[in-house]
Structure formats: C-alpha cells, structure tokens
Amino acid sequence: MGDTKRADFYDGPAHDYLRYWDGRDYEHAAERIALERLLTGEHFAHAVDVGGGYGRLSVLLHRYADRVTLAEPSRRQLDIAADVHPELETVQAQAADLPFADGSVDLVTMIRVMHHLPDPTAELAEIARVLDPVGAAVVEVANLGHFRNRLRHLGRGIPSEPVDIRSPENRHDDEIPFVNHNLDTVTRQLNDAGLRVERVLSVSNFRSATLKRVVPHRVLVRMEEMAQVWLASLRFGPSIFLLLRKR
C-alpha cells in the first residue's frame, strides 16, 4: 500500500483485516498454492513481503528464506502481526519507499496491494531497486480481463487503464481506491521498471459465493490447484500471480 491514506484505512476501527478473512478460506488456500508453486525449489537469504497486512502470507516465506521481513504501512496491522506471528521481523514502510539498500533483497512479494494502486509505477520501480540482480519477485494483480469481465466487454475490448470497481457512492477522494488492472498495461509498466515476467498463474479461479456454498472446500481447493497453470494463458481468474526477475 503506497501512501498514508491507504495505511490509515487499515488503521481505522471500521476495517478489521484479520476478521476480513473469516469465510475466505478458499481464497487464502488459492494464494498459498500459487506462492508455493512459484517458490518451490528456490531458497533466499532475505524475503520481504510488501504490504502484507498482519503477515497472513509472510509466514509462508519462512519455508523459502532464512530471514523474512513484513514491510507494512499500517501500524495497526503490524501490531496484530506482533501478536499472531511474533516470529516475523516487521518494519513500517510504504511500498513506494522501502527502507532497504539497492539490490539487498533477493525475494520480494507484493500480494493484494496492486488493487489499491491506480498508478503502480513508483512501487514497481522500488521493487526493482531493492531486488538483488539474481533475485525474484512475486506480484499479484487484480485482473481486469478475467473471464466474466471479458464477457461483459464482449465486442468492446478490455480498457487499458485501471478501472475503479468501487460503487459510485464510495468513490470519494478520502477513500482508498480499489482498481482492476489490464495485464498488458501492467506488463509494460513492469518492463519500464526493469522487471520481466517469468511465470504466470491464474488464481482464485472459482471465487464464487455459490460455489463455496455448494462445493466442499477440499474439492474446490483441489480444482484450484489443477486450474492455476492450465488457465494462466487464458488470464481466466480475478487474480493473477506473476513471478518476476530483473531484466
């Protein structure tokens, strides 16, 4: 999350991000599967989870890195992390201003942050700056071109610019943005930042209240596990995970 307004949103009492994940076991499992698939066989000295909230996925990085730092702008989320994941190192930091030296981090993850960034240019450049030349980054993108949206835009094409998905009554300057991105646009932004896409996964492919209600969790997760690679070339899901390297 890239500015004070976004940090304040997650500091406020109206937003309980820990409780937000109640009932989202499928989405959490889908994201764990994607991270594990992209990182299996890798090992890193220092991993930094940018904008990782209370460390929901940061703790998974201990399997792949000797040292894990949660870099999060919200003081409240860091306090929760200290309670529920005391093994994590934490630092209060904006995604566009990370307190790490150039090339000093060999794994950077940024999950569920891009949807708060209508213009992620500064954040992507910062990832490239701190990333070791032979390191890796995993960035998740809220996918504007997911299957259902392609049906809605049939004959018109997917907009190239980010689209704010908030309802009109919630679109105020003092409210946090929620945007979906065109993946072609993001790929160009990554290239401009000096990052190249090495692998793509389609994630949360069966994100549906109806499916979660009628399909047993373990079956839905198994379906997700099988679909992430198969549906990647179709950019099917609402969430796309990108494994990145420096160009």
TrEMBL record:
Taxonomic superkingdom: Bacteria
Single biological process term from Gene Ontology: methylation
GO-annotated molecular function: S-adenosylmethionine-dependent methyltransferase activity
SUPFAM superfamilies, alphabetized: S-adenosyl-L-methionine-dependent methyltransferases
Methyltransferase type domain sequence ranges: 48-138
Short name of any one Pfam family annotated for the protein: Methyltransf_11
Keywords assigned by UniProt, alphabetized: Methyltransferase, Transferase
PANTHER family on file: METHYLTRANSF_11 DOMAIN-CONTAINING PROTEIN (PTHR44942), METHYLTRANSFERASE TYPE 11 DOMAIN-CONTAINING PROTEIN (PTHR44942:SF4)
Similarity comment text for this entry: Belongs to the methyltransferase superfamily.
Name this protein carries in UniProt: Class I SAM-dependent methyltransferase
Lineage: Bacteria, Bacillati, Actinomycetota, Actinomycetes, Pseudonocardiales
